[in-house]
Amino acid sequence: MKTITKFILILIIVGTLVILAIKIIRPILEDRAAKNASDAVETKGKIVVRIDSWAGYYPIASQRMKKSLRKEGYLLECVDDKSDLTGRMKALASGEIQFAVATVDSYILNAEPLKFPGRIIAVIDESKGGDAIVAWKESVPNLEALKGTKSFRTAYTPNSPSHQLIKAAGTHFGIPALKSMDPSRKVETAESLEALKLLLGHKVDVAVLWEPDVSKALAAGAVKLLGTENTTRLIVDVLLVNTDYAKDHPDIVALFLKTYFRTLKSYSSGPEDLKKEMCDELKLDPSVVEKMLGGVSWVNLTDNCQDWFGIASPGRQAEQGLVDTIDSTIEILRDSGDFSGNPLPDSDPYRIMQKGFVEDLYRKGLETGFKSLDGDPAAASATQGIDHPFSELTEAQWASLREVGTLKIEPIVFQTGTSDLLLEGKEDLDKIVARLKHYPTFRILVKGHTSMRGDPEANGALSLDRASAAARYLQVTYGIDPHRIRSLGLGGTKPLPREPGESGRAYDYRLPRVELSLLSEVY
């Protein structure tokens, strides 16, 4: 080949590559220029989570959540995949999405073939009436009727929480027909509404539905055989994060969780706002939203730690409800034939859990009275000293606080039959202040008790007066904010347990007392 021909070919190849490069690079440069010339220059990245239309997921997909994350520089994209759990888990495994939601059972079923690509970092909610097995009373008056010889046609949505409810009923109540239904007697539907229509058209005897279709079936005369309002830790929704993403971007995962719990707290403080926003954004009738919300029991940060992940606050026992749920779910799935053995790696439920994110948020919250979660740095730093200020609470807010524990204290001495503190009583309160200094963010409940002898009404009044006297002493002497402390008179209604071999006289001496309990906000 002549030199000039080679030269021309090289020019053509180089030119082609330059043109391709321009086509590829130019849009990127233009996008970057446009971004730099706008407020989008502040955007740090995008967070993608796949969800479906279950009401319990609304706070994650809400505009309130999206706006909060946008202030932090992140765009939140919530993709409704119409309950395509298989596709959802594949997207999580591939890294196409960072977060996903699922029930515990659907995660185990759909993630097992993918070697469990995500970790459970929070419990979102429990179904509490959101799912139910309903039937026509004349055909199936109760669950026991399903144990008979007669065959019943059942409509349900496969791989949905309602499907898990069928399996659980089959396992727990010993109904083989629900665990492995005859193909000729089961009708699989794409959604709850389709199953409802089959029931109302008397094409099936039993239907497994979720709200608002449960209420529609009951209004039409059907009966509820079993609803999740009568179950605990059965249908549990969880938040999943891609394992690699959690390892590479722990700060973003922590931010996402912090924003979610802050959003959930705002809705729990203003439930009417939640209803209105759902009506406006989802274009639903208020009565429908009411029924949907009635079937959801959200799990806040405090309960995530203390009831589900086994993370205790000072003076409290914690439960590992998530482990129990995973274990019981696997039992149901095995009994229903979904698995022949335990599908978890090493049969260990902890392999699909990661409690560190909620634990870190919770510990920081306890240190600052949850001001760090409220997003108020100034308030978060104002936790030193026993006299730092507290905001005023309503009666409902006081009632919502959770007792952390009762401080150990010697019996506070009062003048007999009065609420007048003696010198010894004041000295005992002085000693308790040293302990209070270790817990500057907790509210204080001063509880007065009397013996069980005498007039109950008079005992109640005396116990309240004594509790109030102790509270006043702490406020006046040590500057404890009045909004932090309150008094309660219990009279003789909460006696101490009697010790073995204790004489009646000694027991009566121990009953009149004043106790100081620490209260924590539930975030």
Number of strands: 15
Compute the CA-based radius of gyration. Answer: 30 Å
Estimated helix fraction: 40-55%
Low-confidence spans: pLDDT under 50, at least 5 residues? 37-41, 377-382
First-to-last CA distance: 79 Å
Mean of the pLDDT scores?
86
Strand percentage lies at 15-25%
**Order of the strands making up the biggest sheet:** 2-1-3-10-4-11
> What is the approximate shape?
globular
Largest sheet: 6 strands, mixed
Query: Structural class of the secondary structure composition?
Result: alpha/beta
**Individual helix count:** 22
Based on the model shown, name its key terms:
alpha/beta; five-stranded mixed β-sheet; about 15% strand
What this model shows, in words?
The protein has helices spanning 3-36, 58-61, 63-71, 85-94, 104-111, 161-172, 176-179, 192-200, 213-219, 243-248, 250-269, 271-282, 286-294, 301-308, 321-335, 356-368, 371-374, 377-381, 395-400, 423-436, 456-478, 504-510; strands spanning 45-51, 74-80, 99-103, 118-127, 131-135, 154-156, 186-188, 206-210, 223-227, 236-242, 296-298, 402-406, 443-449, 485-489, 513-520. By secondary structure, the chain is of the alpha/beta class. Helix 21 (456-478) links the parallel strand 13 (443-449) and strand 14. The N and C termini lie far apart (79 Å). The model is unreliable at 37-41 and 377-382 (pLDDT under 50).
Question: Which helices and strands occur, and which strands form pairs?
Answer:
Blueprint (H helix, E strand, L loop, with lengths): L2 H34 L8 E7 L6 H4 L1 H9 L2 E7 L4 H10 L4 E5 H8 L6 E10 L3 E5 L18 E3 L4 H12 L3 H4 L6 E3 L3 H9 L5 E5 L2 H7 L3 E5 L8 E7 H6 L1 H20 L1 H12 L3 H9 L1 E3 L2 H8 L12 H15 L20 H13 L2 H4 L2 H5 L13 H6 L1 E5 L16 H14 L6 E7 L6 H23 L6 E5 L14 H7 L2 E8 L3
